[in-house]
Write a structure and sequence with these properties.
Layout (H helix, E strand, L loop, with lengths): L9 E4 L5 H12 L3 E6 L2 H13 L3 E6 L5 H15 L4 E4 L14 H28 L5 E6 L12 H20 L5 E8 L5 H10 L4 H10 L13 H8 L10 E4 L7
């Protein structure tokens, strides 16, 4: 039995030039979807689109600044221009910040809101607008949130706040459009060893890279950080027809961290 196939569907994945977004884009393409590889880093998006083509799939790069509504609308329009519709939107793009409330400057908080909250809002607005007018109507939205939106993480005030907002937006979108055949779910990863985490290590722990990396591995009950390719299969399931009864859910993949 062929399950979790996306044949004939078109997906737009934000932040797809690296990390979790890259793995989702590659997997979607392997499972038959045409994939808009969207990223503010055009070189990264182009490289992933080339990987998809090399594997025999259909993918194309799209420059997208999720913090800009017109950029979001343009990315959706380009996707529809190429493939006629938008079936799947993955809101993956996001940024982080280290700091408690008093260590978070207003400009830092505003920056995280612009990308992590407004970015999901803008891309969802553009994507859902399209899903409501296409025939047949409907589609799937998959948001990448975080366990930081569910439980407190030390010195991640702004990040926790914005990822909590992503979870809330997921639930609202799911309920508001349940009668229009639009499903929306979110994935809440724990610590994933990705370029996102490596950038954090080099920015905040440059003098103790190996020690801090080892500590991040050790704090997970499974004894290691997760990998981006361990998140992508859940994003595939949520986008597939097999998940037709799943909407408004928060799916945790964290190596057992929140079970402690």
């Amino acid at each position: 039995m062929r399950v979790f196939r996306l044949d004939g569907k078109t997906a737009l994945v934000t932040g797809a030039g690296s990390g979790i977004g890259r793995e989702i884009a590659l997997l979607y393409a392997r499972q038959g979807a045409a994939v808009a590889v969207a990223d503010i880093a055009e070189d990264g998006a182009a490289a992933v689109a080339e990987e998809i083509a090399a594997g025999g799939g259909t993918g194309f790069p799209v420059r997208l600044d999720v913090a800009d509504l017109e950029s979001a609308r343009s990315a959706v329009a380009e996707t529809v221009r190429r493939h006629g519709r938008l079936d799947i939107l993955v809101n993956n793009a996001g940024i982080g910040h280290v700091g408690s409330l008093t260590e978070t400057a207003p400009e830092d908080f505003d920056r995280l809101v612009a990308v992590n909250v407004n970015g999901v809002y803008y891309c969802s607005l553009a994507g859902v607008d399209q899903m409501l007018i296409q025939e047949p109507t409907g589609g799937v939205v998959v948001n990448i949130a975080s366990i930081a939106g569910m439980v407190a993480v030390n010195r991640r005030f702004a990040y926790c706040a914005t990822k909590g907002a992503v979870i809330s937006m997921t639930q609202s979108l799911a309920m508001d459009y349940v009668d229009q055949n639009i499903r929306c779910n979110c994935i809440c990863p724990g610590t994933i060893h990705s370029p996102f985490v490596e950038a954090y290590l080099h920015r905040f722990h440059a003098n103790e890279l190996e020690e801090t990396r080892a500590a991040l591995h050790a704090r997970q009950p499974l004894g290691r950080m997760g990998r981006p390719d361990e998140i992508a299969p859940l994003a595939l399931y949520l986008a597939s027809d097999e998940a037709a009864y799943v909407t408004g859910a928060q799916m945790v993949i964290d190596g057992g961290l929140t079970a402690r």
